[in-house]
Amino acid sequence: MSFPALPARPGLGLKPQHYAQIIADQPDLGFFEVHAENYMGEGGPPHRYLEAICENYPLSLHGVGLSIGGQGPLDRDHLERLRALNDRYQPASFSEHLAWSSHDEGYLNDLLPVPYTPQTLDRVVAHVDQVQQALGRPMLLENPSTYVLFAQSTIDEVDFLDAIATRTGCGLLLDVNNVMVSAVNHRLDPVAYIDRFPMHHVGEIHLAGYDETTDDAGDRLLIDAHGSRVRPDVFALYRHTIARTGPLPTLIEWDNDVPAFDVLMDEVRLVDAVLDAAPAQRLAS
Amino acid sequence: MTDEAQFVAALTDPTRAVPAGLVSPRGTTDAKRFAVYRNNVHVSLTAALAARFPVTRMVVGDDFFAGMARLHVGQTKPTTPVLLHYGDSFADFIAGFPPASELPYLPDLARLEAAWSDSYNAADIGGLSPTGLAAMAPETLADLSLALAPAARLISSAYPVGSIWSAHQQVPFVPPKQSGTEHVLLTRPQADVRLTIIPPAAAALLRALADGLTLGAAADAVFATHPDFDPGSALVGLAGLGAFAAPQQELSR
């Protein structure tokens, strides 16, 4: 399987407040992405709009709640819901996160961090295998943004993701904002992270805005907030990435304080400029 | 406890210490870093409630809503990752939340909003139209069992929650009446959810039908409390609003 299956163009997260404008204006975009869980109602306007929009755009289906990094077994009911949604919409891409979000207490609605050890690697590999088998298609797995490190971790994050992709045949979703957030938070070099990343597995890129605070020591702590424009340092890192890879499908994520559609299209034009300037071929990785 | 269980325990109880082994790059535990996860859980689930209960939020104001939602989130986590259904017990929580007791209609308003989103997301199934109803042989109607459409919801309240909800959809805002019973029917006759305040007798008919009574038995039950009830016009009106699913025999034809 080769990635990507989405067009190597800018895409946007689809938000209900923009449904009507998108259908009326047919903006020039490579694809739309939706959170799978938002389309798990049985019917009604969300499906009606999504079906209409899928007539004109490729779809990226992005799960946020499967808890692939969790210690327990995958939620079979949720996996079945994802299978049904994949069957219904036949998206160009399906992706999920290297994170966990459910426990005995319930669903926590956050992407919680996974320690990187040989044991957790085996577990995530088994979960990705199970998802790909259930869906009958390869998936993309997204690198996380994290705020703490696990003292027990023994494997570098890039190596951990590379091993998952190599062992399962899944692709990777490279979230460049997450790279910046984690690198700043853990005092790592974001460019070195990108330069080591196994780009031949990458099927999609995510960009978003971060917020900023400080930790107990008063040092910078970035928060993956999805509520603002992509920050200049993340855009520079994205430019560096695309110079290395050639054009890749690139999503602008903006999930909180969602602005007018025109503001999102401004971000799209910035992405377009980077993709237009990219080398046509992927460099060897 | 497993690593995950320790993480969750500290995540959901801010009085607990950050679990050992979660560190900053300096190798020390860092409360502000862990607090980002705590905050994400609370803020994102509070936002999920705000999305499902927008009028409740408008009525009480952002700050009051945030405080009320935060307490509910602390007590009741979603049972699935499908947050469309999160908040099913929020109205009951509000009913037992003393600071909200100044607004006695608030629990029913929240019930109406939960029902509105259920209707919005309900299955697309062909309804029984007034034409379909008229085409049925009159002698079969009394024995007919009519199921409610998947998108139909009936909220009966001692307060005018339908009027209150509707007033908050208007610009400029016109203060709604504050007292009086209302029976509020939500349906999706075409694409979108429609809110209709229906007469008490029509609400009684819907309830009797939803309980599984045949049309004849349901109409008799309504007559007992509403002697002026006109079942024909009530039925046509309700069918026109999309209250009924097409009968099984209609679907199988």
TrEMBL record, chain A:
It comes from the Bacteria. This is UPF0276 protein NF348_16280. InterPro entries: MbnB/TglH/ChrH, Xyl_isomerase-like_sf. Belongs to the UPF0276 family. Transmembrane segments: none annotated. HAMAP family: UPF0276. It comes from Devosia ureilytica.
From TrEMBL, chain B:
Residues 5-94 form the Putative DNA-binding domain. Keywords: DNA-binding. It holds the Pfam family DUF2063. The keyword DNA-binding applies. GO terms for molecular function: DNA binding. The keyword Nucleotidyltransferase does not apply. Gene3D superfamilies: DUF2063 (1.10.150.690). This is DNA-binding domain-containing protein.
